[in-house]
Specification:
heterodimer, A: 258 residues, alpha/beta, disordered N terminus, B: 377 residues, Transcription Regulator spoIIAA, four-stranded mixed β-sheet, 9% strand
Chain lengths: 258, 377
């Protein structure tokens, strides 16, 4: 493995040790070791089909790893019982690739559902929280719209509002800028940064958009599909300056150098 | 519940109100709301300045944001100057972020009351529109069928085979169960009544004619409406959601030929076969009851059934089932193709496909029965 520069930025939030992931007998990635610190904007990057999204499904508890551990703080996530896992993951918010808003509910109902289910706030407070969250993602006034009535970019932002509903400690984003025009993609990146700075939330972003990677990240892991393992972790800007691995270099420069 | 944040008031001057926020401001029942400030200001109308002192603030979350946003709005309305001291940097940023995009004012308000006449008019217009949609769909599928007869329709033989398997062979278990039970029920009801006349042997006539001429076709029709019609609607609806149908269109393939035609063909071919099979099962169900309840032998029952039936009965039954097949396929495919682009729209499409199919089956039965009555067959 290459040198692994690590940026100090608070204690470890999520730690992955000796993780192997795959489907049945098929091993997608092995020997994954990295740490996501509190208040990081952490990028899981790699070429298509390298298992970025699978990595995220493991971190959010939808799919179990073949081997290895994921620690949330000191808690061994996959060896806890299902209720404990649920409790941990309730402190996380997830924005799915295409928003994954529930199509039979309005935006307000989408954001309100987690609050209604897991908090004892009264309806008026919930209404105010919903209004605030939608305003934060620039969707004030769209409370009564159904997901099918707004554009794809707005759906993604509404997805972020829903992910933030419970003031989570960690937010996961699956390909946030996929399918967005460059300006909207940049605004979304800014939104992620602003939210991170203001709320101090740990952000985990799955993406292969170089522009986003260099703008928002302060830490990352690179999954190399040809070697079936990770080859680097750290601040992408430093990685670009220091790496000698041709694959990573090619990825970070769109194959234009080397 | 942990201790909530605290709000204290100070009024150093006549026109100045100072709010002192302290403790953890996290969402919860006991968090002070902006209403308290509003009450206070109403009690002291001379207040022109509100200062917020948040130096004693511990942790915070959306609860603080909502409080401050409400306060900002209130102060803007009353033209009161609002100043903050010691507010966390993040809170200021978030408030700016929330105010960055102005609220969309023309967004849909709660829909006002619609008068009964408007509602009735809309329903009538919708009804005529849906009738014309239906006619259009029937027309398009006829055109596709004519193309098929000329050997020009574009569809995949393999698809047709798969659909035939799905709505033919795989439907056998449920058709077996339903038609056997319907045969038994008819025999039970008939045997009890006919016993009074000592004419139990005519149970065979009752079950045989009812099943072969009518019930087998209707029961398979209804089973297939729920089983296959709903599936067609859901499948085509999901394809609509995933833009698969758009992809066919841009490729120059007609969805009518490529998707609808094989489904209609498969169901129109398989339904008479299923109905034929249901005839046999129904008669067997009747036989089980008749033989076990009274002293009729199996051979007697068989001979009586054969004597009671003629080819007209069978023909009418099979014709009806082919018609039902077309109706079920038509409704399923039409609702699927008309489906909107969301998950709930797919559910609506499947529901309305089943409802429309069953209504269609009953209406068609009524028409066929009337015609055969007039013709005297």
């Amino acid at each position: 493995m290459e040198e692994m520069p690590q940026m100090e930025r608070g204690e470890a939030h999520i730690t992955v040790t000796d993780l192997t992931m795959g489907y049945g007998d098929f091993v997608l990635m092995r020997d994954l070791n990295f740490t996501i610190n509190r208040r990081d904007v952490f990028i899981i990057m790699g070429g298509s089909g390298c298992g970025k999204s699978t990595m995220m499904t493991i971190l959010i508890g939808l799919k179990s790893p073949l081997k290895g551990q994921v620690f949330y703080g000191d808690v061994n996530f996959w060896e806890s019982d299902p209720e404990a896992r649920d409790r941990i993951i309730r402190r996380a918010g997830v924005m799915y690739q295409s928003g994954a808003l529930w199509s039979s509910m309005t935006l307000a109902e989408n954001v309100a559902l987690p609050l209604e289910t897991y908090t004892d706030l009264n309806p008026r407070q919930i209404r105010e929280v919903v209004k605030m969250k939608l305003a934060l993602v620039g969707l004030a006034g769209f409370e009564e719209f159904y997901p099918s009535e707004i554009s794809g970019g707005m759906q993604k932002r509404a997805g972020i509002a829903r992910a933030m509903a419970m003031d989570p400690e960690v937010l996961f984003f699956d390909e946030p800028s996929a399918g967005l025009d460059p300006v909207s993609a940049r605004r979304l990146d800014e939104l992620i940064l602003q939210l991170q700075e203001s709320l101090g939330t740990t952000m985990v972003v799955v993406t292969h958009e170089l522009a986003s990677i260099f703008t928002i990240a302060n830490n990352s892991v690179f999954l190399d599909v040809s070697k079936r393992t990770m080859t680097a972790t750290g601040d992408p800007k430093k990685l670009l300056a220091e790496t000698k691995d041709p694959t990573l270099r090619q990825f970070l420069t769109r194959g234009e150098e080397s | 519940m942990s201790i909530a944040g605290e709000l204290l008031f100070e009024q150093p001057k006549e026109d100045t109100l100072r709010l002192i926020l302290s403790g953890p401001w996290k969402l919860g029942k006991d968090l002070p709301s902006a209403d308290e400030v509003m009450q206070k200001v109403k009690g002291a109308p001379a207040v022109r300045h509100i200062g917020i002192d948040a130096q004693g603030l511990a942790e915070w979350d959306t609860g603080l944001l909502i409080f401050l946003a409400d306060l900002q709005k209130f102060c803007a309305e009353k033209k009161i100057r609002l100043k903050g001291k010691g507010l966390p940097e993040g809170v200021k940023n978030l408030l700016e972020l929330a105010a960055a995009v102005p609220e969309k004012k023309d967004a849909r308000k709660a829909e006002g009351r619609i008068s009964f006449l408007v509602l009735l008019g809309n329903q009538a217009v919708d009804f005529f529109r849906s009738v014309s949609d239906l006619l259009e769909f029937v027309g398009e599928s006829t055109v596709a069928f004519l193309k098929l007869l000329r050997g020009k329709a574009q569809y995949r033989r393999a698809d047709l085979g798969l659909i035939i398997e799905a709505c033919g062979a795989q439907a056998l278990p449920i058709v077996t169960l339903i038609s056997f039970l319907v045969g038994m029920i008819l025999a039970f009801v008939g045997a009890l009544q006919l016993k009074m006349f000592g004419a139990e042997i005519y149970v065979a006539n009752l079950v045989g004619v009812a099943m072969v001429r009518l019930m087998a076709a209707i029961m398979t029709g209804i089973v297939m409406a729920g089983r296959t019609g709903g599936a067609f609607a859901a499948q085509l609806g999901t394809m609509q959601v995933n833009q698969e149908i758009d992809a066919l269109k841009t490729l120059g393939l007609s969805p009518m030929e490529f998707l609808v035609l094989p489904r209609m063909l498969a169901l129109a071919l398989m339904m008479p076969l299923l109905a034929l099979y249901a005839n046999v099962m129904g008669v067997m169900g009747g036989a089980v009851v008749a033989v076990s309840m009274s002293d009729i032998s199996l051979i007697q029952y068989y001979n009586q059934t054969v004597g009671a039936l003629n080819l007209w009965h069978l023909g009418i039954g099979l014709f009806s089932s082919a018609v039902f097949g077309v109706i079920v396929a038509l409704c399923g495919c039409m609702r699927g193709m008309q489906c909107g682009r969301s998950a709930s729209a797919v559910g609506d499409a499947a529901t309305s496909a089943v409802v429309t199919s069953i209504v269609g089956i009953i209406v068609a039965t009524a028409i066929i029965t009337t015609i055969t009555n007039i013709l005297g067959v």
